[in-house]
Write a structure and sequence with these properties.
The protein contains 14 helices and 17 strands. By secondary structure, it is an alpha/beta fold. It folds into two domains: 96 residues, Urease, subunit C, domain 1 (Roll), CATH 2.30.40.10; 304 residues, Alpha-Beta Barrel (TIM Barrel). The strands form five sheets. The chain has a four-stranded mixed sheet, with no helix packed on it. A four-stranded antiparallel sheet has the order 5-13-14-15, with no helix packed on it. A hairpin with an 8-residue loop joins strand 16 and strand 17. The chain binds fe (ii) ion. Fe (ii) ion binds next to loops.
Length: 424
């Protein structure tokens, strides 16, 4: 009888150590030097990076792959995107949304992205978005962990049924409480929405993840209220603030007070560099603000920060591939995280740190963990961020779910090697 159902041999782990990984059923049951072991199936990862799967803590699966429908976002702004999506949300059918989302999940699996937290718009009374995403969650469950956030895109109080529909979505089984305080009518209503949403989460025992201060307005300070309410209600460790772009523009003295409050409340931060860098600063002439929140400064305070993707081919963003290494690559540049330990941290931010933010259970490469991993055509995490290389193999819950042949370029140059891989 075989020792393992699946054996991943000879890989380099993100910490630089070398180990074989033995899998039975959906679990890693042995890790280390496993020479001589017999396995039903063997993946040879010699010389390649073997990492736990990528995790995206911020996405919009209901809107993905809809770019250009009903038309392209001409101004490129967040607000035109919201308005375009408002039209699509009421014309798209459940079947269409399920089909688009499943196609995106196929892309994700092929890139080793096996856990996604997706916000789901709860604005429209028909809640077709919620029906569709719950259906997708059920279909992909065997191979992809999909967490859903009830997201009142047009405001909790700004539409007559905003609050009721959010509660209906939670009753239908949506996992996380969302919000958008900077989009409410006034600062006061924004603040009240944060309090209300945190109380709803406390009452129902749910996590919180708000689109928070996604604006260039330096006076948008809902993150302060989010930290306060987290502390007051004892929600430490299960609250995240997504975007936090206003922090880019805030007064430095105020930030010196704010960061310790966020750290004390154990609120995590989820910047979305691809989107923040394209949507923010649109009202500026020059110099133009980047709109990315203060990543290195938060990390120095011990705040957990993860890179999110936010959008792929939707009313807000025309590009995107489902590759979390694209996200880490952009984040590294915009946050100027160029020291070796910072580059390596960018890889952690799209793997282990994101897994911690969304509370993923059994994550990692250790005995007893869920047997999910990705084999990359790179030697280490920094090289992975630099190359954004092919995912040679993806294992989800013990099953080999995606494979790609190594694809070196063939050179036709006299006196030069016949192929080139760009690995160093
Ligand atoms: Fe978002």
């Amino acid at each position: 009888m075989a020792d393992f159902d699946l054996l991943v041999k000879g890989g380099t782990l993100p910490d630089g150590s070398h180990a074989d990984i033995g899998i039975r059923g959906d679990r890693i049951i042995a890790i280390g030097a496993l020479s001589g072991a017999v396995a039903g199936e063997v993946i040879d990862a010699t010389g390649d990076l073997v990492a736990p799967p990528f995790v995206d803590p911020h996405f919009h699966l209901d809107a993905t792959l809809s770019y250009g429908t009903p038309r392209i976002n001409a101004s490129g702004t967040l607000l035109e995107g919201i308005s375009l999506w408002g039209e699509l949300r009421d014309t798209a059918t459940v079947d269409e949304m399920v089909a688009r989302a499943l196609t995106y999940c196929d892309w994700a699996v092929s890139m080793g992205l096996l856990a996604i937290r997706s916000h789901v718009d709860t604005t429209s009374d028909h809640l077709n978005t919620v029906t569709a995403m719950l259906e997708v969650q059920k279909i992909v469950r065997p191979y992809l962990d999909l967490q859903l956030v009830a997201f009142p895109q047009d405001g909790l109080y700004r539409t007559p049924t905003g609050r009721t529909n959010l509660l209906r979505a939670l009753d239908m089984g949506v996992d996380v409480v969302g919000g958008i305080p900077h989009f409410e009518r006034t600062m006061e209503e924004g603040r009240a929405s944060v309090r209300d949403l945190c109380e709803i989460a406390a009452e129902r025992g749910l996590p919180v993840d708000l689109h928070c201060d996604e604006t260039d307005d330096p006076l948008s300070r809902h993150i302060e209220t989010l930290a306060y309410e987290t502390q007051r209600l004892g929600l430490q460790g299960r609250v995240a603030g997504s975007h936090l772009t206003s922090m880019h523009s805030m007064d430095n003295y105020y930030v010196s007070k704010l960061l310790p409050l966020i750290a004390e409340a154990e609120v995590a931060a989820i910047p979305n560099p691809l989107i923040n860098i394209t949507l923010q600063g649109r009202h500026d002439t020059y110099p133009k603000r980047r709109g990315l929140t203060r990543v290195k400064e938060m990390q120095a305070m011990g705040i957990t920060v993860g890179w999110g993707q936010d959008c792929v081919r939707d009313p807000w963003y025309s590009l995107g591939t489902g590759d979390m290494l694209d996200v880490a690559f952009m984040g590294l540049h915009v946050a100027q995280m160029t020291a070796p330990e910072q580059m390596s941290r960018c890889f952690d931010m799209v793997t282990v740190e994101n897994a911690r933010i969304i509370g993923l259970e059994g994550y990692g490469l250790h005995e007893g963990a869920v047997a999910s991993l990705v084999v990359l055509d790179a030697g280490d995490p920094i090289e992975a961020v630099r190359l954004r290389p092919d995912r040679l193999a993806v294992v989800s819950k013990g099953r080999l779910v995606s494979q790609k042949a190594r694809n070196d370029a063939r050179l036709a140059l006299e006196g030069r090697p016949q192929s080139v891989r760009r690995r160093h």
